[in-house]
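Why show two proteins at once? Because comparison is the fastest way to build intuition. When a single record is shown, students tend to memorize it. When two are placed side by side, the eye starts asking what differs. So, the first record is below.
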Amino acid sequence: MSRTDAILTRLLALHPKLIDLSLARMERLLDALGRPQDRLPPVIHVAGTNGKGSTVAYLRAFLEAAGKRVHVYTSPQLVHFNERIRLAGKLVGNRQLNAALEHCEVVNAGVPITYFEITTAAAIHLFAKTPADYLLLEVGLGGRYDATNVVDKPLGAVITPVSVDHIEYLGSDIGGIAREKAGILKRGALAVVARQTEAGLAAIEAEAAKLGVTPFLAGQDFDCHFADGRMVYQDEDGLLDLPPPALAGPHQIDNAGVAIAAARHFGLPVSAEEIARGLRSVDWPARLAPITGRLRDLISPDQELWLDGGHNEAGGRVLAEALHDMHRRNPRPLVLIMGTFANKDAEGYLKHFTSMPEIVFTVPIPGDRAAWKPSALAALARRLGFAAQPKRGIPSALTAAAKVPGARIVICGALHLAGSVLALDGSPPR
């Protein structure tokens, strides 16, 4: 066990629950640390159900194309915890990370606090100590009571599409979930809101009105679409003719549009040319990304291999839409390799694929007892009309998938599974 893993294991034992939504414990620890949240660079706070990470990745790409130093906080990690914290453009080093975690552990003095809270406090401590031009801060879960919601005066807030997820914490009512996400809005701060359901938008606008905030809305104040191989963005300040984003899938046009709207509405110092460069260079692993490492040795050279970490019903929908689009442009037999958690709507996820896959191979999520058993997930897929077989793991599933000539093989269903795939592939995020 590495020193970092040993520290994180100790921190896990500080609270009986992994998630316990509240701000009191976080505020207590930050006060004891000298309120580092008051010494941060301008903060852009991002909440939502789907597209948060991609939106952050675009904003980072735009700002870095303009030569800015950017802190980034995202979660969860795919392979290594360090991925959660990017300091002025680089993933936090082990020594810096360990020192910050141990400092927070000592200051906390054994008082109950959740794992996400104390690790978020360590991140904020590091962000305050390291000079940068901006901080892109992604919400972990919900918004109002999330541990990241401790910045009184952010530059702006972004709310990406809201859908049903984490019902054990947020409930299943889309309006109620959207209200919790809108809890990151602050009086006097700007806000950009992606396309929402009618109920979701009504809830967000009601929360904004209480604070005197007028959100900048997708479909009303700005829009973005794909036309003739280009991405076209338009708002009240004019039209941008841009290259398509490097991230795959039609949904990435919407995510990129939200990020461009935030850059322009928040007055970020990025030009149209720098936005274009950012769109070409953006990187966000395991979001319908090709796998190019050693796992390709298990399949045929004429096959494609993709990885996607979308894990809820909405994630299944956008993945299915992206695969339909790929098939229209380059038809291939589709093979899904799927693993997901027992608390996820696996039926809702799979229903979006209708009769697309040639076969579905189901796999366990390594080291996680809370995942669907491959046999049960395969039985569910068969009830939905798919040919499906359980497999012991990714290598055996890829070996079986290699028998489908010219297949487009897509590993999907959970970010935790995606992380184990990247580790097996030898291509962790950098």
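Second record. Ask yourself what differs from the first in the token line.
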Amino acid sequence: MSNILIVHAHPEPQSLTSALKNLAVDTLMAQGHEVQVSDLYASGWKAVADREDFMETALPDRFSYIAESRHAFASGTQSADVAAEQHKLLWADAVLFSFPMWWFGMPAILKGWVDRVFAYGFAYGVGAHGGERWGDRYGEGTLSGRRAMLAITIGGREPHYGERGVNGRLDDLLWPIQHGMLYYPGMEVLPPFVIYQSDRLSEIEWPSVAEAYKRRITGLFNDNPIAFRTQNGGHYDGQQVLKPGLGAGENGTHIHLVQPGEPEEVLDSRAIRARTAV
């Protein structure tokens, strides 16, 4: 059995989003998994990243959150709430993020959780740079080996978030979260579970939604993740630009997904010679 962390961001315990969170807890525990929940509103999570996050100051003359984050993580002087959430992430085999889409993104309290918990040295600033390698990120990093999935409630209609929808493609709206916040530190990201027109869901419709979510939860460790390209798999050049010949026929964020027929890893001539010699 596995360890599952649910990071939940909704202010109303009786909301549809909270019902999904409760369903996930019950389903996962019934399957024998260990579950922890970080209920950000219920716990009064501090969302603002500022000086108060640090027990001591490395650079007292000019405040730099990045520099202070790096110092605090390395010296073990982070605030207790941040360190506790990092321990939960390292404990977890998978993380579910439960939230409503507000103004085309996550609630501010959840963004504040990412800002504070994903510290320098923990989620970024990891690994060595050299040649085409820019540290351990996008498929590598501290959180490698873990899976993540978003469970999102959206008030709008599904066609509004389609390929030609007025709100833009949902995959593009979620790109900063799924690719930028979760895949960056190494987590494999599953396609999101989404409920559209969530404020209009009736009691009659709930059972089918609940069953659909249970199926997704059951596949948490078996379903295929989104096929993001790994940063250090040979797809990008020394400037971290996708190499010519890759992503043909696609544009926008689509080019950063492995396309049908493409290898997941692209070797340059030196790597091929090195592997052949072995």
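One difference worth noting in the second protein: The CA atoms of residues 185 and 199 lie 33 Å apart.
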